[in-house]
Amino acid sequence: MEEDVRLMKGNEAIAHAAIRYGADGYFGYPITPQSEILETLEAEMPWETTGMVVLQAESEVAAINMVYAGAACGKAVFTSSSSPGVSLKQEGISYIAAGELPALIVNVMRGGPGLGTIHPSQADYFQATKGGGHGDYHLIVLAPSSVQEMADFVGLGFDLAFKYRTPAMILADGIVGQMMEKVVLPPQRPRRTDEEIAAQCPWAITGRPATRKPNVMTTLELDSYQMERNNERFQRTYRLIEQNEVRYQEYYTDDAEYLIVAFGSIARICLKSIEEARKNGVKIGLLRPITLWPFAYDRIAELSKQVKGMQCVELNAGQMIEDVRLAVEGRVPVTHFGRLGGIVPNPNEVLESFYSQFPTAKK
Amino acid sequence: MAKVKGAVKINQERCKGCDLCVVACPVDVLMLQPKEVNDRGYHYAFAHNHEACIGCASCATVCPDGCIEVYRVTIK
Amino acid sequence: MTAEEIIKPENKVYAKPDLLNDNHMHYCPGCSHGVVHRLIAEIVEEMGIADKTIGIAPVGCAVFAYKYVDIDWIEAAHGRAPAIATAVKRLNPSRMVFTYQGDGDLAAIGTCETIHAANRGENIAIIFINNGIYGMTGGQMAPTTLEGMKTSTTPYGRRIDLNGYPLKISDLLVQLDGTCYVTRQAVHTPAAVRKTKAAIKQAFLNSMEGRGTSLVEIVSTCNSGWKMSPVESNKWMEENMFAKYPLGDLKNTVKK
Q1: Residue C178 and residue A347: Cα distance in Å, rounded?
Q2: CATH code for the domain of A74
Q3: β-sheet bridge partners, residue C102
């Protein structure tokens, strides 16, 4: 089959990939810098082709609750927003996690706190990886660094969400959302039929046939012992995800004497910095976490026994660095370089910061 | 002339003694137990004047707990 | 003929519907919720649509509605039931989808979702229990609390200058083009119960037929919150609540 190669924005790629995945529904609310997702879906009119529902909701709060509802029906549904909007969605995300429901949430991050800026940022790392809403839960968090990954992680996100019955998040930043690149779109898959959903998701809310007991989707449990058992079940799922689903990519780590850890768009800039450094014989490697939760603790711990120091480069004031330090356990110095407010550093700036933090590295 | 006679069967364990059936009955069939209580401590409703029942189901219609079954016969 | 002779299966004229299960309802004695639960079960059973019905339960006293009526339910976050019903119905157009909400859920925290679902004309039925108080949390002021009415957060009575006016949300929804049926009923007498049953049935039919949003407001009592007996509550409701919230159809665009 011939590859379907297109040039498009990361946000547009998400919309196309979702239609082609056979998603059943999208519920969203406009916010910069991710409105192209909703706009593309409305322009593509998938309800005419695959039967996918697209709805511009009255708020982010309504949209995430629509996703909770669709997920409860066993449907493949998703929503997207940007940082302030994702804050509004946190209550609903907590319900989706508590309901053990599969759903996909896209956050194309902008700078905060508050209304912040519309420019790119990675300042929602804490929110995405440490729960975000109330209660003990995790999201599977995927961090794309290219338009291709924006497209690919839609399918991956849905598949993981359904495999573990837990919400997954694509944590992109404004750069990946807005930049245009070549992307290979996946082939069109049919949406699952009602019969397939009933068979695959026996818990789904479908209307109760006489042959089974009522299905009830609730996150309320007043019996403390039962609520503890529920939480223990959630935790078992999270341990399983931690065992099976850690994803990362390494560059030049074989002979690395130093390591840069960076995710998303900034990882690509760091790769450029590393290639420059290597021209001068400075052996820096790059580890790019793809899943931010579960996090690559084990691999980073391993590398901390090989390198002399690590630098975390993030578009925030230092968030992922906390996880890197947990992995390193003080074996080598771990430093941070970040720009705030929507500023994206260039490769030289990253390298300068690296040399200032590790002056002995310079040859 | 045909005569309608009714009877009620009250699930006394489900009853919460709210008194609404007593008030709804047009022929004063029901009352709450003055002393007896059910397992949950409610003075449950019972038919103290069953003879008068016409099986109109007014009691069952207003009962918030679905406690009352109504039976009716027409005696010719 | 004795009662024992009359009580035979062939003479049965009324029993609770099977869909209303045998679980002991947690509602206070005399609470209107129980009657409305039973009506929903009766109607779904009579229409033979249990396999097509999806209910959305609220946060409030009716949070456990799903424990008593044996259909598929989704429990919503506080106020979000109309958004949830929207998605359920759009993703499952052949289903009859209804929400069951109290005054705090529907007319305070969920006003946005209520108005927008109705304005889009979502093909859902909204069952709205208006007892003018927050029951579950212990009798606080609701948006529909009457002027002068004492609650735990208006201990000297609701003051308009402090708390604003009782919200007649159904009258507001009448103005929206998306609503096809808005009615206000009660369940305090056998006749009122029969009218409410007909109204809910109409709303359920509207959802099945895709005619737009239906809202059945049921002016109700909360005798615990009102600190009266169930019988006194009904009387107080007739004298006070009905003056502000008069019963009857507010809008019906469905041709009979």
Answers
A1: 55
A2: 3.40.50.970
A3: C129
Q: What angle do CA A331, A332, A337 make, to 5 degrees?
A: 135
Question: Looking at beta carbons, which residues of chain A come within 8 Å of C70?
Answer: 208, 213-214
Please list, in sequence order, all residues whose beta carbon lies within 8 angstroms of the beta carbon of residue B27, skipping any fewer than 6 positions away. Answer: B49, B52, B53, B54
Alpha helices in chain C (DSSP H): 3-6, 32-47, 81-91, 103-104, 111-119, 160-163, 169-174, 190-209, 223-226, 230-236, 242-244
Please give the radius of gyration of chain C, using alpha carbons only, rounded to the nearest integer: 18
Burial of A3 (0-12, 13-18, 19+ CB in 10 A): exposed
pTM summary value: 0.97
Test mutation, B9, B18, B43, chain C, max C CBs within 10 A = B18
Which residue type does A198 have?
A
Q: B3-75 — its CATH code?
A: 3.30.70.20
Contact A336, A236 (CB under 8 A): no
Domain end marker among A195, A220, A239: A195
- In this complex, the residue of B62, B63, B71 whose CB is nearest that of residue C6 is B71
Listed by start position, the domains of chain B span 3-75
The count of structural domains within chain A is 2
Q: Measured between alpha carbons, how far is A341 from C230 in angstroms, rounded to an integer?
A: 60
Whether residues A146 and A255 fall in one domain: no
CATH code of the domain covering residue A341 = 3.40.50.920
| pLDDT one digit per residue (tens) for chain C, 256 residues | 899 999 999 999 999 999 999 999 999 999 999 999 999 999 999 999 999 999 999 999 999 999 999 999 999 999 999 999 999 999 999 999 999 999 999 999 999 999 999 999 999 999 999 999 999 999 999 999 999 999 999 999 999 999 999 999 999 999 999 999 999 999 999 999 999 999 999 999 999 999 999 999 999 999 999 999 999 999 999 999 999 999 999 999 997 6
Domain boundary among the residues A159, A177, A195 is at A195
Of C52, C71, C74, which has the smallest distance from its Cβ to A69's Cβ? C74
User: Per residue in C210-239, is it b (16+ CB within 10 Å) or e — as a string?
Assistant: ebbbbbbbbbbbbbbbbebebbebbeebbe
The pLDDT of residue C21 is: 97
Please give the C-alpha separations between residue B55 and each of B18, B67, C3, in angstroms, as whole numbers.
20, 15, 11
Would A201 be classed as within a structural domain?
Answer: no
A190: DSSP letter: P
Query: Which chain C residue has the Cα nearest residue B72?
Result: C11
Given a contact cutoff of 8 angstroms between Cβ atoms, the answer to whether C54 and C101 are in contact is no
Six-digit token string for A106: 């896209």
Same domain, A62 and A154: yes
Let me know whether A74 and A11 are in one domain.
Answer: yes
C226 touches chain B (CB under 8 A): no
Per-residue pLDDT, C256: 63
Residues from chain C that touch A59, judged by Cβ atoms under 8 A, are 112
Amino acid identity for residue B23 in this structure: V
State the ipTM, two decimals.
0.97
Q: Which domain holds residue A58?
A: 4-195
Q: Read off the amino acid at residue C99.
A: T
**What are the structural domains, with CATH classification, of chain C?**
29-252 (3.40.50.970)
Tell me the Cα Rg of chain A. Answer: 21
Chains B and C form CB pairs within 8 A to the count of 103
